[in-house]
Design brief:
Length: 256
Amino acid sequence: MAVGVLTALSGTASAQTSRLPRTSDGKPDLQGIWQVRNAADTDLAAAPGVVEGGAIPYQASATAKKRANFARRKSADPLASCFFPGVPRIMYMPHPVQIFQNPGQVAMTFAWSSVHRLINTTGKAPLHEGIESWMGTSTGKWDGDTLVVKVADNNDKTWFDMAGNFHSEALTVTERYTMPDADSIDYQATLEDAKVFTKPWKIHVVLVRQKNLPRIPEFECQAEKEEANGAFERETHTWYPKAGARPAPPEKDATA
């Protein structure tokens, strides 16, 4: 009986995999508009089911900086000054992303300030490897039906969320994109930073296909910020019903 159950489950998984949309080279077709539906960007550690084990493994020497970040989170969050979010934060912000895919390349365009990522999926390292930047350097390859992307060359200025969770320039992120079905992408990331954390740790969110969104809306951070502050009159014909749609920072430090 157990063998029969395992066979049935295996058959179901195979059937789901066979029904996935695929590109001309046989890879799962990640193309489309996607968005997460959780509060990970507000507080990564407090969002249910996002951080494996429920806690970020900070070194004792790093907890003071985390508390200081949280105390001044409303102004110190790099996004409050419209700096780029970095990876992985850009993947679970409350704004959609559009993915384009060709053999050997995956491109991502984000609604938030038109940030973009270009990922070579042949495993070949980019020419500018070694130069630190806000979005890091992404190098990808396919592991079966899973796209694996290593993000290195990160600067130390981005946060993981609005709660002040942070990293150093030693951060490396290994992302895994897997489609369990045609309308969702399981996004998993392993984060390693020997200067800040005691061990590698993992996060998991689900990107959901936005079928009713014909294109990604424009969210220009600086313009939205100025509009919210009353610097100019809000345009009534906007994708957003009102300016300042950014959620409020968390009131309690989940790591305290």
